Every structure is written in structure tokens, then in C-alpha cells.
């Protein structure tokens, strides 16, 4: 599998919520995965997106919670969905890869229980 399976990591997005993750506490595997995929030669990284079998969305749920959780009239859940929806919008408009499978071959890493929230009418994760 290491010789054949390839992942493309999107380069869109800015720190701290994208391309970064925690590395020092219970959720640190999220940050470690982002670091391993983006910081050096990984046997799984595709050289270009056309050879990828899967596409990594380098969003950090932990960093989103750190920077988006503030008392407000709307729930935190709605702000988190907007962050993901905005990122997917950028990716799907810039690259053809999301659109060819409706995101079925895309993934992100999360060590949290934020599983299964919806993006529009489609379910993310």
C-alpha cells in the first residue's frame, strides 16, 4: 500500500486553523498527522493531484475550536460548519477533484466527537 496509495494535501488556507494542529495534548495526533503529511517526504504524498487516490483537507478541528469558540448568538456548531463550508467552497471552485466524486475521496483528521455534521444537504463524514 505504501508504494501505491497516494494522498494529495490541499495547500489552500491560512494558519492557525489550516495546516496546523495541536502537538502537545490529548488531541495532538491531529497536529502530528498534518505535520507528517505536509512537512517532509511522506511515502503517501502524491507529487501532483492527478495521481492521488485520496485528498486531505488540512483543517484542524482543535484549532477551529480554539479560535471560533466565543459566546455569540449562534451556536459554535454553526460557526464550525461555516468554516468547513468555506474551505470546501474554495477547494471545489479551484480544483476539479472535489466535484468529480462530490467529496467522497476527501478526508480530514479529527480526534474529537464532532463527527457527522452536515454541509448543505450532503453529510460530511
Topology:
Blueprint: E1 7-9, H1 28-38, E2 54-56, H2 61-68, H3 76-94, H4 97-101, E3 106-107, E4 118-119, E5 122-123
Parallel strand pairs: 1-2, 2-3
Antiparallel strand pairs: 4-5
Helix pairs in contact: 2-3
In words, what does this structure look like?
The chain has 125 residues and is of the alpha/beta class. It has one domain (7-107). It is built from 4 helices and 5 strands. The chain has helices spanning 28-38, 61-68, 76-94, 97-101, and strands at residues 7-9, 54-56, 106-107, 118-119, 122-123. The strands form 2 sheets. It has a 3-stranded parallel sheet, with no helix packed on it. It has a two-stranded antiparallel sheet with strand order 4-5. Helix 1 (28-38) links the parallel strand 1 and strand 2. Helix 2 (61-68) packs across helix 3 (76-94). The longest helix has 19 residues, at 76-94. The protein is globular. It starts with 6 loop residues before the first strand and ends with a strand. Residues 115-125 have low confidence and may be disordered. Belongs to the glycosyltransferase 47 family. Pfam families: Exostosin_GT47.
Offer a concise description of the structure.
The chain has 4 helices and 5 strands.
Mean pLDDT: 82
- Poorly predicted spans: 115-125
Oligomer state of the chains in this structure:
single chain
Strand line-up in the sheet with most strands: 1-2-3
Q: Report the end-to-end length measured between terminal Cα atoms.
A: 23 Å
The count of DSSP E runs of length 2 or more, i.e. the number of strands, is 5
Number of domains: 1
Amino acid at each position: 500500500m505504501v508504494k501505491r496509495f497516494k494522498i494529495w494535501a490541499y495547500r489552500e488556507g491560512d494558519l492557525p486553523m489550516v495546516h496546523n494542529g495541536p502537538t502537545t495534548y490529548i488531541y495532538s495526533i491531529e497536529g502530528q498527522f498534518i505535520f507528517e503529511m505536509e512537512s517532509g517526504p511522506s511515502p503517501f504524498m502524491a507529487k501532483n493531484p492527478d495521481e492521488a487516490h485520496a485528498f486531505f483537507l488540512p483543517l484542524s478541528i482543535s484549532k477551529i475550536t480554539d479560535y471560533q469558540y466565543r459566546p455569540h448568538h449562534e451556536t459554535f456548531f454553526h460557526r464550525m460548519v461555516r468554516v468547513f463550508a468555506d474551505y470546501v467552497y474554495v477547494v471545489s471552485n479551484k480544483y476539479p477533484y472535489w466535484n468529480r466524486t462530490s467529496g467522497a475521496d476527501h478526508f480530514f483528521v479529527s480526534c474529537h466527537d464532532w463527527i457527522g455534521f452536515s454541509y448543505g444537504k450532503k453529510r460530511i463524514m
